Amino acid sequence: MNASSRAADLLGRMSLEEKLDLLSGVDGMYTKGVPRIGVRRLRMADASMGLRDGEMEATAFPASIALAATWSRERAQDYGAAVGEEFRSAGIDVVLGPGVNLYRVHECGRNFEYLGEDPWLAASLVVPYIRAVQAKGVAATVKHFVCNNTDWHRCVSNSVVDERALRELYFLPFEAAVCDASVLCMMTSYNLVNGEYAGESRRLLSDVVLGEWGFRGLIMSDWGGLWNPAPAVTSGLHLEMPEAKAFDPAAIRTMIEEGVISQADVDTRALRVLELTARIEELQLEIPNPNRGRIEEHAGVALEVAREGIVLLKNEADALPLEPGATTIAAVGPAVDPTPTSGGGAAAVSAVDPVSIAEAIVAVCPQACLLREADGGTDEVLSKADAALVCVGYDGEREREGCDRPFALPPDQVELIRRAAAVAGRTIVVIVAGGGVEMAGWADEVDAIIHLWYPGEIGARALAEILFGEVNPSGKLPVSIERRAEDRASAPNYLPPGGELYEKPDYVSQDAIPYDVRYAEGVFAGYRHLDALKIEPLFAFGHGLSYTSYSYRDLRVEPDGDRLVVTFTVTNDGERDGKETAQVYVRPPAALADSVPRRLAGFAKHLVPSGGLVEYRVEVPARAFASWEEGGWRRPTGRYTVEVGASSRDLRLKAAVELDEFRPGGAGGVL
What we know:
alpha/beta
């Protein structure tokens, strides 16, 4: 008997009381089960950067935004497989991740949990991640649906978003998770969307997710994220976590008696819980259990993600790599030791044996002379050093779930950067944070800038390997970093008038005054906004330097059914092997009104040997450059321009192609 048939059989043997009881969780992280007929409880645990559970040790992986900075489907698959193995071996059935909310504002406290500002990049990485997680016999949960793009009083914020922006940007990674990855669970967000709480919106859940996308999995609330019983029960949501509040059995029984819902509606929701349980049991019978607790090999996966996700933003006059045997390094700043491994909140994994930047430098290059502030004070060690390594940024106390953090670094950190730049022979700034920070005021004064993100337990070693040239950096920004906070499209519509950032997390409070977050920029978000208004970013979306140089040639663009096949050659012109992420952007026909100047439509990352070349092949599906018009997708007839390069502002090749009108189907997949 397959999972669906077994679930239907079990449902037929349950009383109404048992069905109602099944619609809410228990003991914080469990479904209730029905012991009388042999339905066990499912155990859940927080995720995104690995297994977060106070009862067991787990690998602390780099932040999800560091995974996004790899631009590597292979790393996403490896990351997902490792997470799935650790959950399975720990006896946990449901991974409460990954998160795919888009990076709309620099300040969002949960940006580190997500996959950047572009929906196509996020979709392209989340699909192999989810498939790999579920191939280990556990369910993935894509979250937080939808438009939870800031954590500032998130339970009273109303995201006001037009339909086109919802479809082309904010829905898209979720749709890919459902239609391309067959994700088993989805979690709703705390905020309102166009006046309705996401978990209480029939339009979002029943009409779009269950109806248009044909989602066959389970939709659960975020923890404590429902408030109004009637809309919650009728929205299409199946499971309230962590306990019954809106889904109180007595209240639902009253709604049945009053005709608000029917017993068939209850059956539908209970059946989804039973189907999930049966499906997980079915998977776990098919897939061997590693049964080894914390799996040591996963540190290697974490290290590879860090190696490919660290982004070299600036490298003036080849300041890096450092000479291992002839460099005195002054390592200063709050992130030197200990080095923050994660932002805070539900995604944070407590690292068992974290490696700090200072420890990693000593381990990777023991012959280097490392000076610390304790060796004579900041100014003294800076004056003695050949190179100053200034490690700044945020940590899990200030960048976390439940609140947002400033775009600007703390003033004392900026002052430290400037002191180092004035004294040291070379100044290298390392940023530890979950997103962009303000750098325009000091970036010109330093020689090199590296974005480490939150590196997990072992990512600092990858940094040391890059500093000394053992690893050639290949990370690319999954976000745009503007010169000024006000250059970001969302800046005028982020905080309400008079609103100020706060530091103590506000998790599920509704005490603050409700306010609208108006997505007035529509689809012109991130690099699309900067391109449309010709605003020069400090560091462009897709930017990332290497210790070698690459050239591009021989672009060919050929229609293949409803797709484009884009091929070109990348040559490594330098003396080091390196991995290059080549990005494909599409410009719509000039005659189209309200079109973004360009949008990411595909990418590929390959190892290109020194002096060698690699032919890249990127398939671009129709949805990658279709627009939402008049209730459906449409790729209009016209002359499209395909651009290929190393970032959204470093485009090396372009070609035009004439395309006929095409209307991509509904639930046929995104990628």
